[in-house]
Amino acid sequence: QVHLMESGGGLVQPGGSLTLSCAASGFTFTYSALSWVRQAPGRGLEWVSSITGDTHAAYYADSVRGRFTISRDNAKNTLYLQMNSLKSEDTAQYYCAKGFKTMSPRGQGTQVTVSS
Questions:
Q1: Model confidence pLDDT, tens digit, residues 31-47
Q2: 10-residue stretch averages of pLDDT, the chain, 116 residues long
Q3: I need a labelling partner for 28 at 20 to 30 A (CA). Which of 2, 35, 68, 78 fits?
Q4: Which DSSP category does 90 fall into?
Q5: Rounded to 10 degrees, what is the CA torsion of 55, 69, 43, 27?
Q6: How far apart are CA 85 and CA 16, in angstroms?
């Protein structure tokens, strides 16, 4: 059974940074593509970034490219999202998901609030 648990969210000022983590279990992590998606208040799910399982190739939505960095540690079965230069429009619940540019299955999410 796929289990994904996000952590690392919080309140940060505009221009600040946060690193999200996602601990995974229940599947072969090393060979699985993984994604981050988010949901802002009153909006639908938005794909943010994906990373492949073999070459660790990274892909980003235009809205975060150059500011966010996705990475993974296969030894720890953990996915990361380094977020820099955060903007108010990055405020959302962030989820990790198993798959490439997919929304599910995903974890329970972690809240990121960008506000002064």
A1: 999 999 999 999 999 99
A2: 96 98 95 97 96 94 98 96 98 97 93 97
A3: 68
A4: G
A5: 40
A6: 5
> Strands 45-51 and 3-7: what pairing?
unpaired
Q: With beta carbons less than 8 A apart as the criterion, state whether 23 and 7 touch.
A: yes
Structure tokens at 25: 């279990």
CA dist., res. 48 & res. 11, Å (int): 19
Structure tokens at 113: 């609030």
Pairing of β 18-25 and β 3-7: antiparallel
Count CA atoms within 13 Å of residue 66 on its CB side: 2
Between the alpha carbon of residue 85 and those of residues 15, 89, 105, the distances in Å are 4, 11, 28
Compute CA 33 distance to the chain's CA centroid, rounded to the nearest angstrom.
12
φ, ψ of residue 90 to 5 degrees: the values are: -85, -5
